[in-house]
Amino acid sequence: MLIDKLGQFGLDQFDRWAGQIRSYGELPLQIRLWNGRDYRFSASPTVTITLPGPQAVSYFRKPSLASLGEAYVEGQVDIDGPLLSVFEVAVALAGRLVSGNKLWGRLAARNAHHSRTLDSESIQYHYDVSDEFYRLWLDEQMVYSCAYFERGDETLADAQVKKLDHILTKVMLRPGEQLLDIGCGWGALILRAATQFGAHATGITLSENQYERARQRIRDAGVQDRCKVLLCDYRDVTGTYDKITSVGMFEHVGLANLAGYFAKVNSLLRDGGLVLNHGITTTDVNNGSGAYFGGSDFIDRYVFPNGELPHLALAVKEMSAAGLEVLDVESLRRHYARTLELWTDRFEANGSRIRTMVDDKHYRIWRVYLAGCAWAFANDWVSIYQLLGCRAGTAGLNPTPMSRGYMYPK
């Protein structure tokens, strides 16, 4: 446990620590100790952290998002206040003790060996919580990826439909074409492709929960003749497709496997076809994890084991090296910040029901994770891009119009 690594940190030291925090200016925080001591860092604190016992004090000796997140998840502290405000305070606490340096240090790229077994276990750990759990804070179609806010005031449900249509319009999906969706989630994109665009759509996933739910949704929609989902690894897919989409999946590929991933995509794409990769990226040009104040340590341990984020430059490089011409690059960072805000709001609104579905530890993990991701995207700690491409070569392999106007039909 982190408390063992930090060693003893008594009340006298905590007093000095509190003074050091105050020396940087006001912070909308109140800390209450088990013995009645009360530390206020502003006249009107919006966030209250309660330490129920002396063992919790050590987490604050050198606070990082990893140590503070661990303290909360493991039940060593209780936190009250708006979630986004809680994360703002946590960032400020960590930042005030790093001597003005923005980072505790970035983790080096792990280059983990992403075997089929490891990737399957990681996916199932994250996604196979329960469908009901996700349904309470996602939209009605359970689209677990960045929405698209054309105006900015759309509902979550409307913005997710716009995202699906934006992707399928970008790849110029036509009736009768064969679409492959790598990492299809609960099937929203392939269902949209089959029911609204008239395509033959195939989705793949490593999550058994998503697989079963997507199959049921296909049956309910009556489109089994042109829509299917497979429980398999992307490396095992065969065939040729007119259009390929990958939404929120390549974060699990691993930096060392990006070349093979894009090469596989290229091998599945027919001449004149289009591919769209929609994925999260680090803002670290050296492809580190972007471990701002220990945030990536927390995510790797509790939420997304073995996830690795490339910088946009590396994604474009590997896509190009695999023989795919990059035709269009679009940033959706602000869109994901808004999506996560709405997910966080829905999670909070349904907190009492969620707590009946998962244990307290998992409730706390997801609560702090969603709020932390909203902060990370809003503050450019991480980003997300849609990369549109085709097979590289002669002009005839690029089927898109000369203007990007086709992507935004009226």
UniProtKB/TrEMBL annotation:
The keyword Cell cycle does not apply. The keyword Translocase does not apply. It comes from the Bacteria. GO terms for biological process: methylation. Residues 25-97 form the DUF7884 domain. InterPro entries: CFA/CMAS (IPR050723), CMAS (IPR003333), DUF7884 (IPR057206), SAM-dependent_MTases_sf (IPR029063). Keywords: Lipid metabolism, Methyltransferase, S-adenosyl-L-methionine, Transferase. SUPFAM superfamilies: S-adenosyl-L-methionine-dependent methyltransferases. Belongs to the CFA/CMAS family. This is Class I SAM-dependent methyltransferase. It comes from Jeongeupia naejangsanensis.
